[in-house]
Amino acid sequence: MGLTMIEKILANHSTKDVVVPGEIIDIGIDVRAARDFGGPNVVKNLINNGLEVDDISKTFFTFDCYPTTSDPKYATSQQFCRMYAREKGIKVYDVNSGIGTHLVIDKGLATPGCTFISTDSHANILGSIGAFGQGMGDQDIAAAWASGKSWFKVPKSIKLTLNGKRPQNIYAKDIVLNLLNKYGANTLLGYAVELYGEEVEKLSLDERITISSMATEMGAIIVLITPSDAVMEYCETRSGRKLTKVEADKDAVYDQELELDISKFIPMVSRPGHPDDSVSIDEVFQTKIDSGFIGSCTNGRIEDMREVAKILKGRKTAPGVILKIVPSTDDVWNQCLEEGIIDIFKSAGALIGNAGCAGCAAGQIGQNGPGEVTISTGNRNFAGKQGKGEVYLGSPAEVAASTIAGYITTPDRIPEKPAEFKATGKIKKVEVSKKDKSVSQKPAVIEGKVWLIDKDDIDTDMIFHNRYLTITDIDEMGQYTFDNLEGWKDFATKAESGDIIITGKNFGAGSSRQQAVDCFKSLGVQIIIAESFGAIYERNAINAAFPILTYTNIDELGLKQRDKVRIDIENGIIENLKNGKKVEISKFFDVQMEIYKRDGLLRVITN
Questions:
Q1: Domain boundaries defined on the chain
Q2: What value, to the nearest 5°, has the Cα angle with vertex 206 and ends 290 and 140?
Q3: Is the pTM of this model over 0.70?
Q4: Chain Cα centroid distance, residue 288
Q5: Under DSSP, is residue 417 helix (H, G, I), strand (E, B) or coil?
Q6: Mean pLDDT for each 10-residue chunk of the chain (607 residues)?
Q7: Collapsing DSSP states into helix, strand and coil, what is residue 107?
Q8: What is the domain class of 445-604 according to CATH?
Q9: Same fold, 5-264 and 445-604
Q10: Pairing of strands 351-352, 527-530
């Protein structure tokens, strides 16, 4: 029985010749990075636990979230990491470098078949070169820096083949949005997806990066694409060494084998709120916009910049419409300068930022305000993620064309006269009172009153918004819990110590932020039970010794809001104490129980 790509890569980095889905293994990590967001907590975890970095040659800081250092708190975090890096001899790709996940590819640090982790939920972008990449929380990263390895649960694999010929007007971003339209945010949850097909083989590296970058938005662990000869040559040139391509065995066993006809793919955009709410661009054609953003780890490559320049050349952005462009790396920025692309951007009226993540980070170029409608090339448009306004997602070509037209359109439908701009919207301030709550003890049997939150795909920005990411004191986090989740913005004022949350699918989708777990501990919430969890969120909760469990069906319990339940985490049983009804749920697996009993992942790391 052969191995899939993910199984081969993980086996190659473990002590086993063969690994199987569901198996928990320790894997060696070839490259590990911490960003300016998350980095300070990684350092604190190391210092507070008396840990040292085991191999500085494999360890890096990448300052890509806040390259402008326009906020004193962000500047403080970066300088704290710089000081640690200087003391330990760790390489820093500073604010003038660009997006870390791109740098590890372009600098030849990560290569096909390798393993890479970062405090970046889009580290799975490494699937674009046939490598394993994962975003992880600060405890995970600290543990890997100290030990050189990380535990991982081998995921099931899906083989997805795109048949047919790719239409000329379909960009890489359209491919992703068509996939999101088909599979949503949780159909592929927890899977490693391998992408195949004649048109897939033709994809450039930049296009592969666009597709692999949005694996996170599809709920997948990673989207792996077998490297083409061109990709192998690029990686060999950048790394300066001969490399071996990792491919799935011909007799590899997949949990599912799916096929789609790429010839039927259409230009699409995602409507505000959810990347998977993708529709034909015709459905939102001529929607008036206030701004456009081109960049992010999904669409900030040189091919993206060239396509945008081709559309903008000799044109101007519509009156009142702001276009913000941020290349992914400093090398891309300089290439734009050399090719005259920067001049085209400036002549069109665009604002160009220095390389970095930009719109995905609060306070950076690409954020919008209340009432503002933006079309963006970013990977996420969760409510509040890119500002207080509405954000549509589209390809660089669609964004460029739309900012010229003043409304959402395609490059072939740019009008001679742009739409008129009308400003609307008022700033609304939401006050959430702070309430001191203590974290309860964590017994094997837990009792408490439930909060039934009947929602799927609750992402980390809804749980703990990115505007609070500078908060590192757990005692301050609870007051902000769910303050970006519609219908639950007052949760922190109503929650009681000892409460239990029961919710739907894909809880914790999105970012790798640890605060989205710790805010519940701060409030005294004892446990979260969901139908499924986002992959990174699951790890963060387990590593923080915060109980989470999954269920298949709990309707038989007849639960109502604020009923009291009893949960046996060792045996996987939940009981409604009001009516005595019981159902089985998942129970702690061995690694989870071990970390839980130790009160956290980092309590036993040794050098």
A1: 5-264, 269-413, 445-604
A2: 90
A3: yes
A4: 28
A5: coil
A6: 96 97 98 94 96 97 86 88 97 96 98 97 96 96 97 98 97 98 95 98 98 95 98 98 96 98 98 95 97 95 98 96 96 98 98 90 82 93 87 97 98 94 50 39 88 97 90 94 96 97 97 95 97 96 97 95 97 97 96 93 70
A7: coil
A8: alpha beta
A9: no
A10: unpaired
